[in-house]
């Protein structure tokens, strides 16, 4: 199962996310749940850099991606991108609840 944690300050200020694991929906290379989650999360990181001009701290390994906004980042476009990613992950979870789990974690 893929586990995704979204770190949120206040009501809706997403500060970062961490996704780890493999969906287990199908064999490697054919797993549409893993592919969808990877496309959303990696695409969000790329868009943060290329469109919002925000360079997040990123850690990445096989089945693991974590990205955190800079401490003082108050970029509206970054929030739009992160909320779009969150909605996409929620949609995947609704369709494949046994393969991906989202959890929102409050942060200060």
The neighbouring-strand order within the major sheet is 3-4-2-1-5
Rg on CA atoms, Å: 13 Å
CATH topology: Alpha-Beta Plaits
> Care to count the β-strands?
5
The domain count comes to: 1
Percentage of residues in strands: 25-35%
Question: Termini separation (Å)?
Answer: 28 Å
Global shape = globular
Q: What CATH architecture label applies?
A: 2-Layer Sandwich
Number of helices: 2
- At the fourth level of CATH, the homologous superfamily is Cysteine protease Prp
Mean model confidence by pLDDT: 97
Quickly give the structural class.
Answer: alpha+beta
CATH class: Alpha Beta
- Given as residue ranges, the uncertain stretches (5+ residues, pLDDT < 50) are none
Overview of the molecule:
By secondary structure, the chain is α+β, with helices and mostly antiparallel strands. The chain has one domain: Cysteine protease Prp (Alpha-Beta Plaits). Helix content is 36%, strand content 31%. Helix 1 runs antiparallel to helix 2 (76-95). The N and C termini lie far apart (28 Å).
Can you summarize this structure?
With 108 residues, the protein is α+β, with helices and mostly antiparallel strands. The chain contains 2 helices and 5 strands, in the order ββαββαβ. α1 packs antiparallel against α2 (76-95).
Structural topology:
Blueprint: E1 2-9, E2 13-20, H1 32-50, E3 57-61, E4 64-68, H2 76-95, E5 100-107
Parallel strand pairs: 1-5
Antiparallel strand pairs: 1-2, 2-4, 3-4
Helix pairs in contact: 1-2
Which key phrases capture this entry?
108 residues, alpha+beta, Alpha-Beta Plaits, 5 strands, globular
